[in-house]
Amino acid sequence: MAKNKARNKAKSQGSKVVPFWETKTLEEMSREQWESLCDGCAKCCLHKFIDDPDVDEQDELKPTDHIKDHEQMVHSSIVCHLLNDKTCQCTQYEKRTVLVPDCVRLTQDNIDDVFFMPPSCTYRRLKEGRGMPSWHPLLNGGKKTKMHAAGMSVRGKVVKDNEVSLDDFEKYIVTWPLDDID
Q1: Longest CA span, the chain
Q2: Phi-psi region of 84 (alpha: psi -120 to 50; beta: other; left: phi over 0)
Q3: Closest by alpha carbon to 51, among 71, 33, 65?
Q4: Cα distance between residue 98 and residue 146, in whole Å
Q5: Which burial class, exposed, middle or buried, applies to 111 when counting CB atoms under 10 A from its CB (0-12, 13-18, 19+)?
Q6: How many helices (H) does the chain have, and how many strands (E)?
Q7: Residue pair 78/161 in contact by the 8 Å Cβ criterion
Q8: Whether 59 contacts 50, CB under 8 Å
Q9: DSSP state, 55?
Q10: What is the pTM for the complete model shown?
Q11: 3-state class of 173 per DSSP?
Q12: Tens of pLDDT along the chain (182 residues)?
């Protein structure tokens, strides 16, 4: 109770309105607040692969929900075919997990288990106590312009998975999804 009173007091101190992401934990946020935190970079839509020398070719491209200590995650510039690569938005957002069964719906309940979110992901940044990135649309009038200009989205960097053979994924390995500028 005292914690909530302190937060409410912090929200209304002076004439400055304190943003909800500075006064609430991720778990305390409403669904609407949670959804608004998505910066829309679409890095989560990139195909990622686990580099494990012990895995045979038959199991190499199977989805996984964990990474072992001796494994390394590798990002590719191959993106889900449902992504509009100009707006960086899913063209079938409400149906995406049905149309792409291994598409992950990030929630307050599973954020600790989703190990593949890039370092620049706002959810990850807030969970790790690193704050909102300066290029985030919530800090820029709802516009993605600064994010794209900073190179923090997938715009102009990807090829769709229905346009390439996933057997050739090694040709598309990239490190730019790991970039984080502030």
Answers
A1: 62
A2: beta
A3: 71
A4: 32
A5: middle
A6: 6, 6
A7: yes
A8: no
A9: S
A10: 0.81
A11: strand
A12: 444 544 454 455 567 889 999 999 999 999 999 999 999 999 999 998 876 666 555 555 555 555 667 677 889 999 999 999 999 999 999 999 999 998 988 999 988 887 788 999 999 999 999 999 999 999 999 999 999 999 999 999 999 999 999 788 889 999 999 999 88
Length, in residues, of the chain: 182
Residue 88, CB half-sphere, CA atoms under 13 Å: how many? 22
Residue recorded with tokens 């229905």 = 162
Residue with tokens 């590719």: 76
Continuous H helices in the chain: 2-12, 20-23, 31-36, 96-99, 122-127, 145-149
| The residue to which tokens 């890039």 are assigned | 118
CA of residue 53 relative to chain centroid, distance: 27
Q: 20 by DSSP, 3-state: which? A: helix
The pair of three-digit structure tokens given for residue 58, joined into one six-digit string? 């038959």
